[in-house]
From TrEMBL:
A matching Pfam family: TIP49_C
Protein's UniProt name: RuvB-like helicase
Residue ranges of domain AAA+ ATPase in the record: 24-316
Localization: Nucleus
GO BP annotations listed: box C/D snoRNP assembly; chromatin remodeling; DNA repair; regulation of transcription by RNA polymerase II; rRNA processing
Family, per entry: Belongs to the RuvB family.
Gene Ontology MF terms in the entry: 3'-5' DNA helicase activity; 5'-3' DNA helicase activity; ATP binding; ATP hydrolysis activity
GO cellular component: Ino80 complex; R2TP complex; Swr1 complex
Catalysed conversion reaction: ATP + H2O = ADP + phosphate + H(+)
Protein purpose: DNA helicase participates in several chromatin remodeling complexes, including the SWR1 and the INO80 complexes.
Main location: nucleus
Length: 412
């Protein structure tokens, strides 16, 4: 990422607080002009937290387009951002395969039976095989010398690799051969498995007749408060028993100024909950009206919510930073541009906006290809600039020809 050193330092401190679990129930507000990297910084925080920490992103305007109440939409967004790390113990049989014997039924009709001999460094045992287990072993291509695990509850077979004792076998020296030690101790073991789900996923599974399949349909609808209360009680019980941990995630609300006073009141109350996620809000507004009221406030956010928030400000990019960003963008789009053209594009970015100058890269590249050139020149930039208006020139054009437009409300 280019520039915004102060904002990135602030985001780094926020990241450490999140990782240490010391910022739950607070909000972060990112403010700055359009195109100054607010969303990029929020996405950077999400990537740094890792895949195990839930991250939910939504725009303030989305809440009004969903087929549910505003508070329900925010509640679901909150619960999507709260993870539950569940620990479960499973019984496994883990050992090195000594021998596999499969007996086919007489006449080829009926289920197959067989035996498998497994060993560890301390013991060796013979297990009877049924049709299902034989199919699982065949599917995994298990053979003598392999180290495998068998889940006693589901019968699932997993091939861990080839035993080091068979390292000299000619049939085990393929490019994908992976060698592991022969297991120690007992053949039957208890292992802890950990998986993370969100509270919203648990809500959906327990509130729909089709269970977890409802997650794939996308249409979760409104969920009854009674269901959530029961789930909260169960999760609290798991936490006390040491079976689960709460993982506060991140909820990123872009265009937060689009929320109304009802949504802001909900956010204030929801942030006080002990299981609240970290809420990162972003806005590009100055002093403006709070939606649903006649009152004005900084960034269109009520003062009591601003008081809860740590505010990070982004600043406009310098000429050097704009030049560097445009260079990176040209590399990403595989566009060759000479220094003179890049200088002109940088000047356009300063006078108009960074986003507008980025849009011109693709147009200028098409212009260069049309004249069969592999490099974008200043003529291509000038042509793209003349074809597409920026915001300032568009406003100037409207002022000149406003009387020719329909439903014009500005007095001539």
């Amino acid at each position: 990422m280019v520039g915004q050193l102060q904002a990135r330092k602030s985001a780094g401190i926020i990241l450490k607080l999140i990782q240490q679990g010391k910022i739950a129930g607070r909000a972060i507000l990112m403010v700055g002009q359009p195109g100054t990297g607010k969303t990029a910084i929020a996405n950077g925080i999400a990537q740094s937290l890792g895949a195990d920490v839930p991250f939910t992103a939504m725009a303030g305007s989305e809440i009004f387009s969903l087929e549910m109440s505003k508070t329900e939409a925010l509640t679901q967004a909150f619960r999507k951002s709260i993870g539950v790390r569940i620990r479960e113990e499973t019984e496994l049989i883990e050992g090195e395969v000594v021998e596999i014997q499969v007996d086919s039924p007489a006449g080829g009709i009926g289920a197959k039976t067989g035996k498998i001999v497994l060993k560890t460094t301390e013991m060796e045992t013979v297990y009877d095989l049924g049709q299902k287990m034989i199919e699982s072993l065949t599917k995994e291509k298990v053979q003598p010398g392999d180290v495998i695990t068998i889940d006693k509850a589901s019968g699932r077979v997993a091939r861990l690799g080839r035993s080091f004792s068979r390292a000299k076998d000619f049939d085990a020296m393929g490019p994908d051969a992976r060698f592991v030690q022969c297991p120690e101790g007992e053949l039957q073991k208890r292992k802890e498995t950990v998986h993370t789900v969100t509270l919203h996923e648990i809500d959906v599974i327990n509130s729909r007749t089709q269970g977890f399949l409802a997650l794939f349909s996308g249409d979760t609808g409104e969920i009854k408060p009674e269901v959530r209360e029961q789930i909260n009680a169960k999760v609290a019980e798991w936490k006390e028993e040491g079976k689960a941990d709460i993982v506060p995630g991140v909820l990123f609300l872009d265009e937060v100024h689009m929320l109304d006073i009802e949504c802001f009141s909900f956010l204030n109350r929801a942030l006080e909950d002990q299981m609240a996620p970290i809420v990162i809000m972003a806005t590009n507004r100055g002093i403006t009206r709070i939606r649903g009221t006649n009152y004005q406030s900084p960034h269109g956010v009520p003062i009591d919510l601003l008081d809860r928030a740590l505010i990070i400000s982004t600043s406009p990019y310098t000429e050097k930073e704009i030049n560097q960003i445009l260079k990176i963008r040209c590399e990403e789009e595989d566009v060759e541009m000479n220094d003179e053209a890049l200088e002109a594009l940088t000047k356009i970015g300063i006078e108009t906006s960074l986003r507008y100058s980025i849009h011109l890269i693709t147009v200028a590249n098409l212009s260069a290809k049309k004249r069969k050139s592999s490099e974008v020149s200043i003529e291509d930039i000038q042509k793209a600039y003349s074809l597409f208006l920026d915001e300032q020139r568009s406003v100037q054009y409207l002022k000149e020809y406003q009387d020719q437009y329909m439903y014009n409300e500005i007095a001539v």
